[in-house]
Specification:
Strand content: 15-25%
Order of helices and strands: EHEEHEHEHEEHEEEHEEHEHHHH
Number of strands: 13
Radius of gyration: 21 Å
Low-confidence stretches: none
CATH architecture of one domain: 3-Layer(aba) Sandwich
Strand order of the largest sheet: 3-2-1-4-5-6-11
Largest sheet: 7 strands, parallel
Mean pLDDT: 91
Number of helices: 11
Shape: globular
Helix content: 40-55%
CATH superfamily of one domain: NAD(P)-binding Rossmann-like Domain
């Protein structure tokens, strides 16, 4: 297939394109930021140039078979008004722009990278039938995006859409949530809050890339939704112990009593409100740390998919990169 990838210069896009090329696909990498290192049969195009023209001729020399939509305004713990506006502009209106582009260019396959945050929180393990009001503004924006894709797929016979609800992504090069956890444990700054037996679903980058190339070949008319997670999910405590052992820090971690953590979070909110300075622990961050985001990937497995990595293998690969990326270390 000839595939157009939006948001191609981001963390996932820059890893996904070589994987698609390896699977035999050609395509167009679309982003605001120029990309010079692309596989053979792949070319880069500026986002504005692609969206503004009424014809592909000259800008995209070959008909597009599918669009993979990666553009996103990422989740933030304490969103400002500016963040809320970006959630709407990027995560909702951005999807609409590309669906309209598909209509104009007769593209009948669309893959949306969504999030497990697009459905309501629950202490139970959830499958793709999960619903309910998302708990965050980011999640609400992803839920609205999913709704747009659903309507697009249902509007014309033969259209095929995939909605991929990603768990927290981790791997080499990712300096987001899991990187922060690894760094905190490595520096002795991490504390368990109470028992921390709440479960968090994650997905290693290798597992994510393998799932995308697996599913894109199996697209059917209509809308299909898949949770993209590692094969097994673990509690925060289990993950922290796993990371500590890989780091060589032993399996014993310090624990902070919940009432003390709650008091510290209130203090953190006050610091942010008065000074504008970010504080390590606020009520929103404490809530996120204590909530369960447990999702099943059994539907994905039933398609014949096999995860190339376990969570421990994925974390080990990430920690190897983390060690080599620290100041004074040689990068691998």
């Amino acid at each position: 297939m000839n595939i157009l990838v939006t948001g191609a210069s981001g963390y996932i896009g820059s890893a996904l394109i070589p994987e698609l090329a390896e699977a035999g696909h050609s395509g167009v990498a679309v982003s605001r930021k120029p990309m010079s290192k692309l596989p053979p049969d792949w070319l880069w195009r500026n986002r504005a140039a692609v969206l503004e023209v009424s014809s592909q001729a000259g800008v995209i020399p070959q008909a597009v078979d599918a669009v993979i939509h990666l553009e996103v305004k990422q989740h933030v713990y304490d969103p400002t008004r500016s963040d809320l506006a970006e959630f709407e502009a990027v995560n909702v209106e951005g999807v609409k722009h590309w669906l309209d582009w598909c209509d104009s260019h007769r593209v009948s396959r669309f893959i949306l990278f969504s999030s497990i945050k697009a459905v309501a929180d629950s202490e139970e393990c959830r499958d793709e039938n999960a619903d309910g009001e998302p708990a965050t503004a980011y999640g609400m924006s992803k839920a609205r995006a999913e709704s747009l894709v659903r309507k697009w797929a249902q509007a014309s016979h033969g259209r095929a859409a995939l909605v991929l609800r990603l768990a927290v992504v981790y791997g080499p090069g990712n300096e987001a949530n899991m990187f922060s956890l690894v760094e905190a444990i490595d520096r002795g700054r991490f504390f368990l809050i109470g028992r921390n037996d709440n479960v968090k679903s994650l997905v290693a980058m290798r597992n994510l890339l393998a799932a995308v190339t697996h599913l894109i070949e199996r697209m059917q008319p209509g809308l299909q939704i898949y949770n993209i997670t590692d094969r097994h999910s673990y509690s925060v405590c289990q993950l922290a112990v796993m990371i500590a052992k890989v780091l060589g820090r032993g399996g014993t971690l310090r624990t902070l009593p919940l009432p003390f953590a709650q008091a510290l979070a209130f203090f953190g909110d006050a610091v942010v409100r008065i000074t504008g300075i970010r504080f390590p622990l606020t009520r929103s961050r404490l809530k996120a740390l204590l909530e369960s985001t447990h999702f099943s990937c059994e539907k994905l497995i039933k398609t014949g998919f096999r995860h190339p990595q376990t969570t421990e293998q994925g974390l080990s690969e990430m920690i190897k990169w983390y060690r080599n990326s620290k100041p004074g270390s040689e990068r691998s």
